[in-house]
From TrEMBL:
UniProt gene name: def
Catalytic reaction equation(s): N-terminal N-formyl-L-methionyl-[peptide] + H2O = N-terminal L-methionyl-[peptide] + formate
Cofactor note (record): Binds 1 Fe(2+) ion.
Sites where the protein binds Fe cation: C94, H136, H140
Origin species: Desulfurobacterium thermolithotrophum (strain DSM 11699 / BSA)
Protein name: Peptide deformylase
Cofactor(s) needed: Fe(2+)
NCBIfam families: pept_deformyl, PRK00150.1-3
Function: Removes the formyl group from the N-terminal Met of newly synthesized proteins. Requires at least a dipeptide for an efficient rate of reaction. N-terminal L-methionine is a prerequisite for activity but the enzyme has broad specificity at other positions.
Broad class of enzyme this protein falls into: hydrolase
GO BP: translation
Length: 177
């Protein structure tokens, strides 16, 4: 089922997600819905609070929208970043801030500890876009959106631009209903 993506400045995007303690069919359905929603919107990652669910759940597929879509799905339950290395500045966007892209400084490498759908712990590492996706989505679980990582001036300019983009997005979504 495709879920509604919460759009900034929705309050749920500023809240911290809660630890998942039950690993059951309901959690599996949430993950399936998150992938379906992410693919429909063309994103490469989605955190549960972006669809209004305050649970520490993240899905990632760097091949979203490509022929390999669905073959390299990453599911992170209760993820925690355990190591960051290097630095790179690259453009980021977000399904909760449609149309807005800004350069954000992030670590070039990230190591994450998480659980799978059965509750088993694992470690996953990533560089480049995958490291960026880990950091971006885990930020969401902590109530942080990517524009919060910008300097005050850059954030103010981004928000001014976003106000115009949001009106355009809302008109588009209204015409699709």
């Amino acid at each position: 089922m495709i879920r509604e993506i919460r759009i900034y400045p929705d309050d749920v995007l500023k809240k911290k997600a809660e630890v998942v303690t039950e690993f059951n069919e309901e959690l599996e359905q949430l993950v399936n819905d998150m992938f379906e929603t992410m693919y429909k919107r063309g994103g490469v990652g989605l955190a549960a609070n972006q669809i209004g669910i305050l649970k520490k759940v993240v899905v990632i597929d760097l091949h979203s929208g490509k022929e390999k879509q669905g073959k390299e799905q990453i599911i992170l339950i209760n993820p925690e970043i355990v190591a960051l290395e290097g630095e790179e500045v690259k453009e980021e966007g977000c399904l909760s801030l449609p149309g807005l892209y800004k350069k954000v400084k992030r670590a070039a490498y990230a190591k994450v500890k998480a659980q799978n759908l059965k509750g088993e712990e694992f470690i996953i590492e990533g560089e480049g876009l995958l490291a960026r996706a880990f950091q971006h989505e885990i930020d969401h679980l902590n109530g942080i959106v990517f524009i919060d990582r910008l300097s005050p001036l850059q954030r103010r300019l981004a928000l001014e631009k976003y106000k115009k983009l949001k009106r355009k997005y809302e008109r588009k979504m209204t015409s699709q209903k």
